[in-house]
Specification:
Elements: H1 2-24, E1 35-38, E2 44-48, E3 58-74, E4 77-90, E5 98-108, E6 114-125, E7 132-144, E8 155-160, H2 164-171
Length: 176
């Protein structure tokens, strides 16, 4: 009987230890990151030959795509790591071997305030005989003094920087 009693005590002790261990090792909750988003309508851009806006005058169409983000907190704030692809397709009027592109990252804070805007340049090179090319961009943006509790109030918007002519074209209807 003594052996049965020892075994029962051992089983009870093991169950008690297992219960204690499971309640103390709950997985940590991941800190929120500021949202990184492509600005609707600014994730694409086109270039036309001259002022003509017809399919035959298209030099290139470029898009920002595959945006991914992650973040890490430190004593200065939060570092947001961004990865995205810039892809360009040469159009019928495209004769250049490379396309220079400018895109932006705008930081929007609490109350939808624009806190900063950075312009970044990239170059897409077309290989001989190819009309589709792209580059992968990776960068880190530091938001100083932002804590995990404040992160949900911040957004990062990315898009192509439009010049005056591109902006005017966007405001005009496609069909006249």
């Amino acid at each position: 009987m003594q052996a049965g009693r020892v075994r029962a005590v051992a089983i009870g002790l093991a169950a008690l230890l297992a219960a204690c261990a499971s309640s103390e090792t709950e997985p940590p909750v991941a800190a929120a990151c500021p949202a990184a988003l492509l600005l609707d309508g600014a994730e694409r851009t086109t270039s036309y030959r001259g002022g003509e806006r017809s399919p035959d005058a298209l030099q290139y169409l470029a898009v920002l795509t595959h945006l991914q983000s992650s973040c890490s907190y430190n004593d200065q704030g939060v570092d947001v790591d961004l990865a995205l692809d810039l892809i360009a397709q040469r159009g019928p009027a495209g004769t250049q071997d490379s396309v220079p592109l400018t895109y932006f990252i705008a930081t929007i804070g609490p109350n939808r305030q624009i806190l900063s805007k950075q312009l970044l340049d990239s170059q897409i090179e077309f290989t001989k005989g190819e009309d589709l090319a792209g580059v992968a961009e990776q960068l880190t943006l530091r938001l100083p003094a932002v804590t995990p509790e404040q992160a949900a109030a911040y957004n990062l918007y990315l898009g192509f920087q439009l010049d005056d002519a591109q902006l005017e074209r966007r405001l005009q209807p496609l069909l006249r």
